[in-house]
Structures are given as structure tokens and as C-alpha cells.
Design goal:
By secondary structure, the chain is α/β, with parallel strands linked by helices. Helices cover 38% and strands 18% of the residues. Helix 6 links the parallel strand 11 and strand 12. Helix 6 packs parallel to helix 8 and helix 7 packs antiparallel against helix 8. The chain is elongated. It starts with a strand and ends with a helix.
Amino acid sequence: MARCLIGCGSNLGKRREQLDRAVELLRFMPGVTFLAASRYRETRPVGGPAGQSAFLNGACLIETELTPHAVLEMLAAVENTLHRERHERWGERTIDLDLLLYGDLVLETAELTVPHPRMATRRFVLEPSAEIAAEFAYPPAGCTVGDLLDNISATHPLIAVVGVPGSGAPEVAAAVADAVMGRVIHAPTPLPLPARYDLGLPAGSAATRWSQVLAAWAEPLNRGQWDDDPHPVIADYWLDELALAAADDLRAADLAVFEADFSRLAEGIVAPQVAIMLMADRAALAERIAFRSRHAHAHTNVFGDLATQVADVSDSDRAAALVMFQDRLARRLRCLDGRGPRSPKAVITVDAGDLGQAIAEATAAVEAML
């Protein structure tokens, strides 16, 4: 038997009646023991088409002998019974049932991702869930549902938009900050990628260069200068990017010095509550590298974190190197290589192939936590 946490929502038709009916259908499903239901909360729609009605949202806790995919099929059957129609993403719906957690399972398939990939930043999910299952474990972050709610309830939250050069992190961070009336922090200096990732950043003493970047990146995040402003801060970098890249670049002796400096400075900085990981494929990065090469002297700063490349290396090869680093960064951020003390509890992955769509998705993720 596995405990399952299910999110419920409706913003079309007789919302309360539809939610009540969905709960009743779940109570009497074969192989299901109904444990608890939260109160309903009215919330504004986030991320979807304009002009939608407000949602009623809740959560249910069940115990079941069904497999995760069978639970998904059961929820779809309940939705179909209540005439759920799917016309557009995040559009209006009579009923919406999401499998949020299935025991301590972590699963990612074409049909189903558990835990739900966006639950960790959605207040309309976490508040009703914490009401009935605050101690339910959230495996990706090694914390509980209650911890996730506390995490996005920080007085002055820091959201890190994380991505390799060319992913659009500076552009996304600036747009999100503008949308939510937050403050943006841009990386004070470019990430000095190692030789196999480098896109033409200035040469020099590797150890000195890394130390200078570390000091520059840490300074805006100094905890001693952090105030209680209720608005979020959106940064277009994550300090641990430096540690990951430095390990590929520095010799053992220099790396030991850098890691000691990193540990000392990291103790005094604010760590992000939420990270938005931008993922761009090789073709998109190659196109953006070529764009920067063509417009190196033009009056545009779009993808300005891609320095002009002077070495005789193709755009495609440079993009492939960035994808390699991007994959390693995503693993670190998602804690597949071990959770660090500065790892955010909530991580949202956004496709950065279309910059406009990436901005819309990142903005929706941040708006949902406020």
C-alpha cells in the first residue's frame, strides 16, 4: 500500500459541487482507502490564458494498492466522469486532478512524473496539501510538504535563474523580476568556463580568475546586507555553478585553495529558495552563438553572456560543450550528485528553446509561489 497526495482544482462551472463530486468518486474507487481532504481555497489563475475565473483548490490523501500509472488512469477516469475537456495548457477546467506524491517514489516517464514537477513552488498546491499531509516526504529535496510551504513563504525570497551562457538566464531573470515587482541581480562577471566549455572569455591566471569571479558573485548575496523587503530577488546565477565549473578547470592545488575560499564565502551568503533551470538544446545554443558572433559590435545585449569566440571551433562544437556542462549543472541542481547546503528545495525545469515561452513559464512559476 502506498500513500498518495492528490491536488484538486476547478474554475469552470459549479466549482464546489464538482470538487465535492470528485472527492466522493475517489472515496469509492476500488483499491483505494480515502484518508483526508483539505478545505477548499480560492486562488487566482496563474500562467494560463487571460480572463479566467478564480480557482477553488484543495488536496486529498489516499492509500492505495494501485500502481502509479493506475492511479493516473483512475484520476483521468474521474475527470472524464465530470466532463473535463483539454483545449489548451493551463486553460479553464471543470475539474483538475494531479498526482502530486506517491509514497517516496521518484519517477519520470513520458506519461507521468512523480513528484509533480511544479508542486514545489505552487502555493495553491502546498497550502491545502500541508493542511492534511504536512509531514509527507518530498524526496527530491529531502524535506516535507510543510517544509516546501515554509520555503516559499520566506520574507525576502531569492530565486535563482540558472543556465549556461546562451540559455537566456539574464533575459529571463530581468523579465520575471519586472513581472513580479522584484529586484534583479545579474552576475557581476561572466562565468569563466573551462577550456572545453569556453566561448572566448579572456585568458589569464586560472586560479586568480576563479577567485575574482567568486568574490564578485558572492558580494550581492551577502547575508549581512539582506533586508526584509517582501518582494523577491531574482538572480541570473547560482553560486554553486562556480564550484562545478572550477572542478573541471583547476589543478588539484589551486582547486583546494578555491574550495576553501568558496566554503568560507558561501557561509555568509543567502541561498536560493527556488531555482529555475533553463535547458536549451544544442541547436538553439549554436544558433545563439552564431547570433552573438554576427552582432559582436552591434548595440544589442541579447545573449550577451556569450562572449565572442576567436578560436577556430565551430558553433556546433561550442554548443555541444555547453550542453555537456548544462547536463552536469542540471544533475547538481536536481541533487542527483548529492544535495549541498546551498541547494534550493524547489527546482523548476524550463525549456529555453523559445525565449518568450521560457519567460512566460518562469514568471508563472514565481507568481504561483507569491
